[in-house]
Amino acid sequence: MTAKIIDGTAIAKEVRAEVKEKVAKRVAAGKPQPGLATVLVGERVDSATYVRMKQKACADLGMNSFHRPMPIDATQEEVEALVSELNADPAVNGILVQLPLPDHLDEEKVLQAIDLEKDVDGFHPINIGRLAQKGREPVFVPCTPYGCIYLLKKAGVELSGANAVVLGRSNIVGMPAALLLVKENATVTVVHSRTKNIEDVVRNADIIIAAIGMMEFVKGDWVKPGAAIIDVGINEKPDDTKKRGYRLVGDVNYEEAAEVADYITPVPGGVGPMTIAMLMANTLRAAEIQQD
User: Domain coordinates of the chain in residue numbers?
Assistant: First the structure.
């Protein structure tokens, strides 16, 4: 193995420590604790787990958390009314509507209902629109793509002028990550299910961000020697040696790619911890915008 591991767990710990220190200073100065509201519609097990992790992070960093569960049959009007209520609550600095929403709800309208200065998930159409425009800055950047770029910078990877390939074009990771790379003056290609000769495109990349949701999709011989790889994927690979019968792997074949790349994130322990760390950073910033 020649690649240096970009340790997302350690870097996220640093980010969280910085946020905790700033929160403590704010409170000591007599300012309110930053507050994050989470809205969960329904009882998806994975979504409920993510919400609990966010609540715990708030508690660990000295922030308030307000969890507002709603039944799976909640109407569009009821969800939007709750968002409006949270918009009006000065104790709530950030609002996070846990996605995906049940199929009967209009996700776009719910996200549009969130106050721009409380959109700590960074998914409001105006925030995404600003991200896509030269000379404009969003109030908040989506947390996972934000974490990807932060990891590259912490590793010392040169972004300006680099050839970057993003695998996947989701609204949550792929497209925002591509836009962030453009803002860093990288030359960006987004590949997806309709891209021809994907491996040839990837072979030209100095930077690879893999968020395509396909287990070990990127092979070692696709990787340019010296490339930096950020693997966003989380997939369950059968493994009889594990008690649970599987192990977690990414969208990149780690063993193969690590022999070629200069930098690589592990799965788990790479991008995952950064998502919540950046959410906490966004929530603190929301409090600073609204209360300072």
Answer: 30-116, 142-272
Q: Of 22, 98, 183, 231, which one is the catalytic site residue? A: 98
Annotated active-site residue 54? The verdict is yes
**Options 54, 118, 183, 224, the catalytic residue:** 54
Q: Token pair 């059968």 is at which residue? A: 238
pTM: 0.95
Give the span between the Cα atoms of 95 and 248, in whole angstroms. 30
pLDDT of residue 2: 87
Q: Catalytic annotation on 22?
A: no
What CATH class has 142-272? alpha beta
Q: How many other CB atoms sit within 10 Å of the CB of residue 163?
A: 16
Which CATH code for domain 30-116? 3.40.50.10860
Averaged pLDDT score across all residues of the chain: 96
Bridge-based pairing of strands 207-210 and 187-191 is: unpaired
Let me know if 121 is a catalytic residue.
yes
Does the structure show a pLDDT above 90 at 292? no
| DSSP-derived 3-state class of residue 157 | coil
**Start-end of H helices in the chain:** 8-28, 45-60, 76-88, 107-113, 125-131, 143-154, 174-183, 198-202, 254-257, 272-291
Active-site hit among 115, 119, 121, 251: 121
